[in-house]
Amino acid sequence: MATASKKKLSEIDRITEPIPVASASTSSRRDERAVELCECMMDIVAALFNVSSKEMRRPGRTSQEVARVRQIAMYVTHVVLQMSMREVGRGFGRDRTTVVHACHLIEDMREDADFEQVVMMTERVALAAFRDRMGL
User: Fold this and answer.
1) Which of 6-20, 56-70, 91-105 has the lowest mean pLDDT?
2) Which pLDDT score, from 0 to 100, does residue 133 have?
3) Which GO terms describe its biological process (predicted)?
4) Distance from C-alpha of 136 to C-alpha of 127, rounded to nearest angstrom
5) Do the Cβ atoms of 65 and 73 come closer than 8 Å?
6) Is 95 in a helix, a strand, or coil?
7) C-alpha dist (Å) from residue 108 to 3, 56, 111
8) d(Cα 11, Cα 127) in Å, to the nearest integer?
9) How far apart are CA 12 and CA 76, in angstroms?
10) Among residues 103, 117, 32, which one has the least CA distance to residue 73?
11) Are 129 and 47 in contact (CB under 8 A)?
12) Residue ranges per domain, the chain?
């Protein structure tokens, strides 16, 4: 029994071992930057489409209108800012698979000429807003 307890303690020590400082701070800074960029994108897109940025940030389901605007924002963030879907998901407070779904949906909807214009306008605004910050 004492051996089993020691083994469990050594496993816990291994699991809770601190991450090396360099990799933790680099990853943390990258995550903070992703969240900051997504927050900015949500504010921009909420203003463009006249929806509440608070509603866009709300966890769980929202109205179809707010969900569509969020999907456009996720798509534009992924495409224009060249962020991974994992980073976009983290920044929007959603799962990566939600971002994958949003990107596929928006790509399919772009076949409609009017919707294409809406997405292109959103991309242009994002490019202008982030040009200096991202070197775009």
Assistant:
1) 6-20
2) 72
3) DNA replication initiation; regulation of DNA replication
4) 7
5) no
6) coil
7) 59, 22, 6
8) 48
9) 42
10) 103
11) no
12) 20-134
Radius of gyration of the chain measured on its C-alpha atoms: 20
pLDDT digit string (tens) for 81-90?
A: 999 999 999 9
Distance between CA atoms of residues 62 and 53, nearest Å: 12
- Asked if residue 107 lies in contact with residue 84, where contact means CB atoms within 8 angstroms, the answer is no
pTM for this model (two decimals): 0.77
Q: Cα dist. 49→45, 55, 73, 83, 127 in Å? A: 6, 13, 11, 22, 17
Q: Which two tokens stand for residue 123?
A: 């991309």
Q: Please write the tens of the pLDDT for every residue from 12-52.
A: 444 444 445 455 566 678 778 889 999 999 999 999 999 99
CATH topology for the 20-134 domain: Chromosomal Replication Initiator Protein Dnaa; Chain: A; (1.10.1750)
Q: What local confidence, expressed as pLDDT, does residue 15 receive?
A: 46
